[in-house]
């Protein structure tokens, strides 16, 4: 038995596809081979443990406890076009690391060129979130991970085809056995677990803002500090929904964001029967790495941070289409911010950029397929107007 295990390990190492036995940075390996998140925010308290408050506030509970092997397997799957119907699109096609795990498009594009109805949300810090997708329809990382794979306008695959492709592959069965001990047959639960494990490892909590929050005030410029003060003020009230340290309160908000020209009104979380009060409502997104994730809003309506900020100062309900009687969030009002204050907020939001724990993009995939074309494009521009 020991000889067989050593031979298996030697073969996988020679082939270059042995899964990591170490946790990603910021995670601690426990005695039972689980990765638990450790951050400086652990030293702080939080009202009702919800991660809502000022600069020194504890984070909400994080989804961790996955093994290093499950996280690493999820990394391979995340970048592998084998998961799509035509083997050309990966999860990373719409969630590109260099773009803050978005795709730089107003509306994402599917495997067969279908144009979606919403922009791709960032995946940074999703391990803290209780609801996923713009309309908050998924209640777990596992549920979220599988929906795009089978959606006709996204990766357009089927569970049967995906499992057949994985099982027939020269390497994936052995990798799944490393990540899920005792497994003989790959199943969709394991695929969802591995993808969730990887996504939970995407931690961004080491920005210049975080250095400031932990006591190093020189980390921010005077302009950024002014922007932070406006952001947190009772006039702008940005921080009441985009609350530190996650910069989201994880709630659904109806704010009356306009759709792009020619695009039908999106009911968002209010599309389901019995949720009329949430019509036009969307989950409050995190602002971490926001400078990398332009364009902004659920439909990519605004090209820059200044444009997105200006929307909030143009008057309550100014962009609600005729015939729609939306129950706008009470925080949406008329702060009447000046151009200088808008510029200061945008500068502050740039201080939330942190990709220091960016995971490595695989140099080679177990499927033998090439990385998607989207991952071989030039570095994107930020959403800050220069």
TrEMBL record:
Disordered as annotated region, ranges: 363-386
Lineage: superkingdom: Bacteria
Ranges of residues in domain Cytochrome c: 69-170, 222-353
Major location (coarse): other
Keywords associated with the record: Heme, Iron, Metal-binding, Oxidoreductase, Signal
SUPFAM superfamilies: Cytochrome c
Pfam families membership: CCP_MauG
UniProt xrefs under InterPro entries: Cyt_c-like_dom (IPR009056), Cyt_c-like_dom_sf (IPR036909), Cytochrome_c_Peroxidase/MauG (IPR051395), Di-haem_cyt_c_peroxidsae (IPR004852)
Compartment(s) where it occurs, according to its Swiss-Prot or TrEMBL record: Cell envelope
Official protein name in the record: Cytochrome c domain-containing protein
Annotated source species: Rheinheimera aquimaris
Classification of source organism: Bacteria, Pseudomonadati, Pseudomonadota, Gammaproteobacteria, Chromatiales
